[in-house]
TrEMBL record:
Name of the molecule in the record: tryptophan synthase
Job of this protein: The alpha subunit is responsible for the aldol cleavage of indoleglycerol phosphate to indole and glyceraldehyde 3-phosphate.
Matches recorded under Gene3D superfamilies: Aldolase class I (3.20.20.70)
Swiss-Prot/TrEMBL catalytic activity: (1S,2R)-1-C-(indol-3-yl)glycerol 3-phosphate + L-serine = D-glyceraldehyde 3-phosphate + L-tryptophan + H2O
GO cellular component terms attached to this protein's record: cytosol
Quaternary structure, from the entry: Tetramer of two alpha and two beta chains.
Swiss-Prot/TrEMBL keywords: Amino-acid biosynthesis, Aromatic amino acid biosynthesis, Lyase, Tryptophan biosynthesis
Organism: freshwater metagenome
């Protein structure tokens, strides 16, 4: 039934000095996953990253891989997820996180069309390089879906400038080299990657990969426009905490960020 558009929502919020919070939810991991989406929104999420399960997730660590396997074993497909989302309404933007194979399997136009109908207004495709972006970028933008691009600690300044110029909705700053997963501490790569991005005009800078606790979320919020949290939330869902546990965790992040 729909969700707000990503770019204007985030532009408005950041203009009010509001720090963005984007939790990641693995679609189809259990029967309550849509309830988890609503719970994290009620707890203070400004957008929700909807993960589509994929058999070979190159950027995902053990926790999200486990959730993806569980989802695939339940028969989840990209189309089944988008169909479920289409039947509901959400108070914040939805950003799909997937891999290019999933998009290519359906075709750019079909995937974008079904995603648009589902209320998706942003897309993160981490294995689609800048050099191969043109075809998907054109179709996505025609459908009102913002291509969200990533800058890693290893990205050169020249490449970072190009990514900043082409990312829409927000710019995903990768806090550390490696796959997603919970971490006991944040590294100095966090400040370095944000400083590198800040050298160029870009949409709001949101940082993820390894953000696991309210204290870490606060550290990110002190230097970036937004915080992305995935594995730490997905672990709670895998452990059976359900929508209530997911909401409580996201509320703790929101409170720390706003403190």
């Amino acid at each position: 039934m729909g969700a707000p558009n990503l770019s204007p929502t985030f532009e408005s919020l950041t203009s009010q000095n509001h720090t963005l919070l984007i939790p990641y939810v693995m679609a189809g991991v259990d029967d309550a996953w849509i309830d988890v989406v609503h719970a994290v929104i009620a707890a203070g999420a400004d957008a929700v990253e909807i993960g589509l399960p994929f058999s070979d997730p190159i950027i995902d660590g053990p926790t999200i891989q486990e959730a993806g396997v569980r989802s695939l074993e339940r028969g989840t497909t990209a189309q089944s997820v988008l169909a479920q989302l289409q039947r509901d309404e959400f108070a914040v933007p939805l950003v799909v996180m997937t891999y290019y194979n999933v998009i290519a399997h359906l075709g750019h136009e079909r995937f974008a069309g079904e995603a648009k109908q589902a209320g998706i207004t942003g897309a993160i495709v981490p294995d689609l390089s800048l050099e191969e972006l043109d075809g998907w970028e054109r179709v996505a933008e025609d459908a009102g879906i913002d291509p969200v691009l990533l800058v890693a600690p290893s990205s050169s300044p020249e490449r970072t400038k190009k990514i900043c110029a082409r990312s829409r909705g927000f710019l995903y700053g990768v806090a550390r080299m490696g796959v997603t997963g919970e971490r006991s501490s944040m590294t100095d790569e966090l400040e370095a990657v944000v400083a590198k991005i800040r050298a160029f005009p870009s949409p709001p800078v949101c940082v993820g990969i390894g953000v696991s606790t309210p204290e870490q979320a606060k550290r990110v919020a002190d230097i970036a426009d937004g915080v992305i949290v995935g594995s730490a939330l997905v672990r709670r869902v895998l452990d059976g905490e359900g929508p209530d546990g997911a909401g409580a965790f996201v509320s703790s992040l929101r409170n720390a960020i706003d403190a």
